[in-house]
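Hey, resending since the last one bounced:
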Amino acid sequence: MESIEERLLTVCNDRDHGSHWIVREAISILYDLATEKTSSPEESMQRLYDAAQKLVRSHPAMAALAGATKRILDTPGGLSEKAASAARLREEVDSATEHIAEYACPVLQGTLMTHSLSGTVLDVLVACKAQIERVIVLEGRPRYEGRTLAQLLVKQGNVKVTLITDAQADIFLSQCQAVVVGADTVLANGDVINKAGTALLAWAARGHKVPFYVLCETLKISSRTWSGDLAQLEEKEAGEVMEEPIEGVTTRNFYFDLTVSRLITSIITERGPMGRREIKQLLSSY
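The structure tokens again:
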């Protein structure tokens, strides 16, 4: 069995899972740190705070991670109260997908297209499989997580899947009734930060007049707005794109991009569909 430190390192270094998995694992780690009995309460509390800081720094594009850790750490009281908060939050995360599916299934029918590996999207597509004819999956360079999603859709839902390169999306969009993606962060104005390539797909969907849906938990909604700072999009090693460098050529590898809200038909959450107005109302209630 992995130690807490090993699990923390795995989550901090993860590049293959969606934010749903990362956030749930982070909550579980913080819960275990708050309940472990091998250290003094003071040491355990310090480890809890240190782990939370490492998690947030490791995935700056994921608002849900910052939101989840803040909610746990801001819980009044000691370790037991913070552990109880983590347990409640984990239950909310686990139940959110079922509610998202209830709102999303009426609009996810026929042939759909998706991009990146989102645990939320996977679960919702499997839940709605009776009305889905086919899912066209972009393979998701440079780590090809779309291939994993394609396998999981077949294995978990026996869904018919077509796997294509990212560059072929426009060719197949005319066959689709909708595009559906996840989100790493929903900004205060309804813009979405997600896997690089999402914005291009949204523009292409607009050109084909294909609805573009984002599925995510409200935990991913942030009070932040886009600052223009590309650091929010997490640039990684160029070697993932080009293993053997080409002399005189600069290779870039941003993991995320920004999809503006006007390209998004609806953001479907566990509380129902949301647009800019509903997001503003939600943030003002906090």
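The chain is about 45% helix and 15% strand.

Sorry for the duplicate.
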